[in-house]
Amino acid sequence: MKIVIAPDSYKDALSAREAAAAVARGIAREWPEASLHECPMGDGGEGTLEALLAATGAERRRARVQDALGRPAEAHWGWLAASHTAFIELAEASGLQALTRDERTALHSTTHGVGELILAALDAGARHLVLTLGGSATNDAGAGMLVALGARLLDGDGQPLPAGGAALAELATLDLDGLDPRLASLTVQTAVDVDNPLLGSHGASAIFGPQKGASDADVERLDAALAHFADHAAQILGEDHRELPGAGAAGGMGFAARAFLAAELRPGIELVMAQVGFDALLAGADWVITGEGQLDGQSLSGKTPIGIARRAQQAGVPSVVLAGRLGDGWQAAFDHGVTAAFALADGPLTLDAALDRCAALLEDNARSLARVWRAERERA
To answer: For 210, what's the count of Cα atoms within 13 Å in the CB-facing half-sphere?
Structure first.
């Protein structure tokens, strides 16, 4: 019996690596002879870097950067010297999880630290970059990243704009002449975990701004500011990427990656599966177990469990999702390759209790699955 264990992280509770280990422990308790293959996954959001490091053996490196509020911080990134490939996760530098709820400010947060990580990769000799988006505290359409890479964003008086998306409303000059010349020879693949455009009712500001501290009035202000920025970019570049699926990822960083770094935008889970050789791992598998904090209707837009289930279905392998919670519309997952889905809770739990017990709950659910599978195998 070959079982592939490929979960994402369980937000605020377990990393993908820790989740995979918990599932493996549960199965091994009941079926020690089963062949278990742990493959931590990610879809571009927080924790994707860990999955890539675990799967590729890339070297973990550190850099001093600015966080989303411009404060000094340390961020990790990955380096594969043999292929001159860098792995950068936006959330490492500009992630929402690094801020308290009171600190979240979609109006003024910046992606400057992501640009600093790209500079560190270029200094190491990077020729290829895998940039994962998701989990951001920002809504500046990558403006901070551009400034770190050498661009100038000036107001009508020729002064540099303050950090943050709101300031883009005052943009008068977008000067790209100072961009680091090494970017021209850098190939960029960008992992996005959503397919939203940059603007409008389904755009970066409207859909993701509120979780970053934006009020209704802030959302309108940000959407107008990002539209103004997109107008300038289109005029200079001769291309307009605001409607591109994924442009709204990470507060508009998908837009910036495509427009200014010539990045290929790919669903994060597909990019990660390619990097870790997931198709080869599926060969000969009997079951796949995946999961994350919540499975719901929104998961269909590119979240890890659905991406894993779709690929497993193509390979003729059934899949089980172990989710912290089954939210509205989760049943639609059955139409996208999921064989069965289970919520972890074994009774009424507060959120804090569920987070504290996440590893034990995963282990218990995996143990139950193993008992079912083993009983069926023994009957056969």
So the answer is: 7
